[in-house]
Amino acid sequence: MKLAFLGTPEVAARTLNALVEAGHDVRAVVTRADTRRGRGGDASPSPVKRVALELGLAVVHAPGEALAFGADLGVVVAYGRLVKPDVLAQLPMVNIHFSLLPRWRGAAPVERSILAGDTVTGVCIMALEEGLDTGPVYARQEVAIGEEETAAELRQRLGDVGTGMLLRLLSADLPEPVPQEGEATYAAKLAMDELRLDFAAGARACHRVVRVGRAWTTFRGRRFLVHCAAVEASDGSGQVALGPGQVAGDRVGTGDADVHLRLLEVQPEGKPRMHGSDWARGAR
């Protein structure tokens, strides 16, 4: 089967590379245009574009441009944009989605599943249609979420699962997809306010925000990032009880009276990442 591939981030680049290694004929790759970053404004290609160029594949920046390459099927992995109906009418597409649809349709299914405290998520390969992740499903597989697993780690693992599912699916004629069943929930892109740590909400809720990434609070009036943390119960050794947001060393009190959040890796504004214990000694 002749394929067009649509994707942007690293997790999609891994799938693209696996398709080529498996011998599939990828005629064109669709990804976002280069972005300019840094003081010099140097152009930065997406991870998918970097891999595509290394593999000698044609790269375009709009789904409609892929129609000229004679593909039979489009494969979509974290492309990040909707594909217009007129393009889908000419080129059918399948999408690897990182949730058990119809739960967590939308842009941030991995992050939303962690924030909600889900213990199980999964991967669905569905037919792409005009609605937001509403298409019927060709294959699905459940995946357990680790208690300490970050969104980045879970996304990579789901990407590997989805790639294996896709390769198996493309090894034969596509089966008849099954309509989604159940109550739909939506995974909107996270706002920065949602990543602010609310210590009154409890240690486990804060820990989930940290696992999602870019968690922040303020310390002495300046922004303070928490990159890694752990939930720890009081050890019964006479530790002073901490109220929500109160700090003792690298411990922060939460809404759980007998549980605190231990800061393992932090980044005060204007400084590099550091161990929480090192920060605590310096901050006094």
Across the major sheet, the strand order is 5-2-1-6-7-8-9
Number of helices: 7
Low-confidence stretches are none
Mean pLDDT: 94
Write down how many β-strands occur, each being a DSSP E stretch of 2 or more residues. 15
Q: What is the end-to-end distance?
A: 63 Å
Q: What is the CA-based Rg, rounded?
A: 22 Å
Identify the overall geometry: elongated
The largest pleated sheet is described as: 7 strands, mixed
Order of helices and strands: EHEEEHEEHEHEEHHEEEEEEH
Helix content: 10-25%
The share of residues in extended strands comes to: 25-35%
Structural class: alpha/beta
Q: What can you see in these coordinates?
A:
This protein has 284 residues and is α/β, with parallel strands linked by helices. 25% of the residues lie in helices and 28% in strands. The chain contains 7 helices and 15 strands. It has a 7-stranded mixed sheet with strand order 5-2-1-6-7-8-9. Strands 10, 11, 12, 13, 14 and 15 form a 6-stranded antiparallel sheet that branches. Helix 1 runs parallel beside helix 2 and helix 4 packs antiparallel against helix 6.
Please give a handful of descriptors for the protein shown:
284 residues; 28% strand; seven-stranded mixed beta sheet; alpha/beta; six-stranded antiparallel beta sheet; 7 helices
Short description:
With 284 residues, the chain is of the alpha/beta class. Helices cover 25% and strands 28% of the residues.
